[in-house]
Amino acid sequence: MKNLAIGADEILLPKVDDMSAWACIACDQFTSEKEYWQEVERFVSGKRTTLDLVLPEIYLDGSEEDRIAKINSNIKEYLNSNVFKSYGKGFILTVRKTPFVERRIGLVGVVDLEEYEYKPKSNSLVRATEGTIEERIPPRLKIRKDADVEFPHVMVLFDDEKREITEKLYEKRADYKKVYDFTLNMGGGSIEGYFINDYEEVLGKFEKLLETDRLVKKYGKDDKFLFAVGDGNHSLATAKTHWNNLKQTLTEEQKANHPARYALVEFNNIYDDGIYFEPIYRFVFGVDVDKFINGLKSIDGGKMKVYADGKETCYDGKNSLPEGIRSVDAFVKQYLIENGGTVDYVHGESNIKKLVDDRNDAVGILFEKLDKSELFKYVSANGAFPRKTFSMGEGIEKRYYLEGRRITK
User: Fold this and answer.
1) What whole-number distance in Å separates Cα of residue 30 and Cα of residue 283?
2) Which of 48, 91, 287, 373 lies 20 to 30 A from 352 at CA?
């Protein structure tokens, strides 16, 4: 079988009494809402939890060295205390219910980092869907380079319009061992997991997605494009950077089998009913509102809405969604350099309006939704979208840290 960039592996699950305390949401969520993370801390206090093993980005303030050292110490302590169990080599079929969707099906396995490239234009099997900010890699790298175990929030998309892989596994889930079933904290819904041991059959179905006739029909060329990173691009880019650094110290034989060559992710069919795209809005604060909006009017941001002082104004520019976002981001960056202020990226229209309403120096910029069926075609033809073009669902629907995998020998 050819290298498909996807594989089964020995996945670690916790031996804990309270799974709701164990799992916590992706570290890059709720970065403007400290109270969310304070509530999580109260909920998990005194219990085994992945919150001990990851670094929420809200705490990335330049003084995180002690936190990072504690995280890696906690990982070692959890390993030494025999907190983890494994069912052997396989995948985990994960079934998530959220406040917004009845069911989202995923397949937890490993991606081969040798087949992944995060540069904007790439012909690799696994590609980034958004621009990567290189400066965001070092803080994450500080954790990964010394960590024995990884915990993923990365979600990787594949394009299976016939729904023959994860959907078929879901239909026969009763044939597999259920390995978890619990309610997620902080209103994240619920999740079930099933251990998939017949992984060779699954891999054979992924191989069919690379048949030349199919690719030419989809993209107009034989583009070996199998996976697109939907969520967690910077985390996967960090794993790639760590692997690139580490492999300089390894023999060819060691490179072929080292666990850090791979990263644990959740694979999702883009056609799954539980996968939907939401826009990511720009929350700009610490600015002169009138001056900022007057400047914004001078560019073509495509179709967008601007919210400030309790009022919403619609703009109907000619730029496409990606090009409109690119123009807006360039304007915001230059404005902040010249005038000061801050930009954050916010999910949900009600969330950004509340944040803007709480201040008198803030503006919200709201974009339209990306049609998910266009994603693979666009990336094949143009490369990555601008950073923060879309989000897979709402913030509360992001992946929770749950499964782990050893990345050291």
Assistant:
1) 13
2) 373
- Tell whether the model's pLDDT for residue 1 goes beyond 70: no
Is residue 343 a contact partner of residue 283, using CB atoms and an 8 Å limit?
yes
Burial environment of residue 295 by CB neighbours within 10 A (0 to 12, 13 to 18, 19 or more): middle
Q: Are 277 and 370 in contact (CB under 8 A)?
A: yes
Radius of gyration of the chain (CA): 21
Angle between helices 137-144 and 65-80 (to 10 degrees): 30
Of 116, 322, 95, the closest CA to residue 226 belongs to 116
The tens digit of pLDDT for each residue in 339-363 reads: 999 999 988 899 999 999 999 999 9
Which residue from 227, 208, 166 is spatially nearest to 6, judged by alpha carbons?
227
